[in-house]
Amino acid sequence: MSCNYLYRSVSHRLPNFICYTPIAPTILSHKSPFCSSRRRRQSRSFSISAGNSFTWDDVFRVPESPQNDDSALSGFFDKIKLCNRDLEKQCEFMPFVIEDQIIGYVHHGFADFLKPFQNVFIFPQDNTYGSHFGCYCTLHPNLSTPNDRTKAVANVVKSLGELIPGIRNELFPVASAFGEHIFFALERAAAPYFGIKAYGVHMNGYLEKDGQEFLWLGKRSEQKTTYPGMLDHLVAGGLPHDISCGENLIKECEEEAGIPRSISHTAKPVGAVSYVDIEGYRMKRDVLFCYDLKLPGGFIPHNEDGEVESFRLVPVTKVANIIRNTSFFKANCNLVITDFLFRHGHIKPEVFGYLKLLQSLRSGYCS
Amino acid sequence: MSCNYLYRSVSHRLPNFICYTPIAPTILSHKSPFCSSRRRRQSRSFSISAGNSFTWDDVFRVPESPQNDDSALSGFFDKIKLCNRDLEKQCEFMPFVIEDQIIGYVHHGFADFLKPFQNVFIFPQDNTYGSHFGCYCTLHPNLSTPNDRTKAVANVVKSLGELIPGIRNELFPVASAFGEHIFFALERAAAPYFGIKAYGVHMNGYLEKDGQEFLWLGKRSEQKTTYPGMLDHLVAGGLPHDISCGENLIKECEEEAGIPRSISHTAKPVGAVSYVDIEGYRMKRDVLFCYDLKLPGGFIPHNEDGEVESFRLVPVTKVANIIRNTSFFKANCNLVITDFLFRHGHIKPEVFGYLKLLQSLRSGYCS
């Protein structure tokens, strides 16, 4: 007996994202496709416009917003969209399968570039894995060991040249789910072209003072190749395959914010957020493990690796308004801080859209 | 262009529940269908057996378990199953639709009892809403106002007599999602027969002492008709349609644990859990709004409404072991406390199954 219609209803629980083109950092007007029409309010615009870059002064000038009207969460929904682009294009990808496990997704256009490498990639005509194209991508059966697969795929990636830019010589593990058997390792920059899941650790550093909570925010160096000059929470980093989440976090705490192990070992894992972002041939499937670190009042973070320009301590209510009213934050940091806002009681069930926003923080393949 | 195969992969992210029959409170052996075969460990049994009832002494005798082996989370997965029974039978239900919105699900066997009431319920032959049976359930178009619908459905429920036992004369709102337009109100006991979503507020009361966290647990009165003598967290209650979550929680805090408003108003909303439980004609779709209340060290809860026999303060690590190793807790309390364990860092990403368990806390229609 088939239950397809119920599966469909489950999938409908995910937000129905629309096509979205990322924009330069600016203060946004509010209008969310997540609110039903009768809930929508007039879109608002603000007098501050930061253009392509902004200063801490701009950050602290972000206006207050009404916290309890029906459109209060629309700015948060906008930031979820920013991380989950073009989801309707998932049907342009075919499953990438190893040993009967779906470990990623390959765009049919990108597949055309892989097809000449017949000793590495093969494309069986078989919709066992539900491909819209009646085929899937897999590795040649001669490549039976992780080592063989890693080398063979690395050679193809190298051969593709500028089709996959930004090679970092950093290997990411490839598995069907976190903690599962690793089939091979893949260059980090190539992972989204094969729809491989990537994992990271993200930490909010906070303190309590006079009954109010504050978050330490970083402003990224203008020299960073990704998201230069934008806001970050205190510590974040991708998770390579040779280190645990907890140990990676302690390492990143030291490098990014000068937090010694004596403090960082008290950081608490508090859950995870996830998203799926499609851009051209790339399907970025990210899971971010979230951590909270309660910092002592006297602690001042200092960057050790040149990736952060400066830090500021900001009241959590102000941080919430920055997320809602601007695009100052590096896109995925919005999700991690919104998760913090939920867990610390700053977003309340009385506000329309509470459950939908909570659920959408794990829009991706959280596995 | 269809994206069905991707929808399928989304639905596969939900745990693949197997048929489960609830058992009397006892200490369980460990074996989880969620762990892949290579991850499974030998099932273990313990010498304590509580039978149909148990005392606080039994609770405190629950043995320690290894926290970090590969099967560490299997006891938690068992409790998720306890709340999400017979999910494969969702296909025996048809959508219940009002004004183009799916607001519930009706079992095809139960529908046979509704069909004689042709002025109230109609069953169009149309699979617009994806019904496996090529039909759906809706109300007669003459019933166009909430008041008319409430009265007409109440009369049918009354006519069905013992088919719907346990009438409480308590009305629940019927909407497609929380905070959305209310189509009518329905007797609480009848809600699962129409697959209507129900909402509740559940609160963990905790305190910190010498760097360790403790939870206040309640033991339900042996006179309760549901889950007599079982463990509860500190405060919980269903959400009627005429009160907000926050106000309902304050009311329940007073009635269930004697917590005055001066303390309970500091309780923080921290998210939600959800589940779907099928039993016969009933599809119970629950969403529980979770709250944390940090209590002062000197506070002792006392029950005001006779529903709780007694309270004890229990170290959180012990509570985690009670969940993992016993079925002492009222079923849905396991989910709310497991959510607490995640948010407070007691379950770590290094343990196999972390993301799957986290995701499964919202197995239901969290909307």
Automatic annotation (TrEMBL), chains A, B:
One of its GO terms (molecular function) is 8-oxo-dGDP phosphatase activity. Residues 198-336 form the Nudix hydrolase domain. InterPro entries: DUF4743, NUDIX_hydrolase-like_dom_sf, NUDIX_hydrolase_dom. Belongs to the Nudix hydrolase family. Probably mediates the hydrolysis of some nucleoside diphosphate derivatives. This is Nudix hydrolase 24. It comes from Solanum tuberosum (Potato).
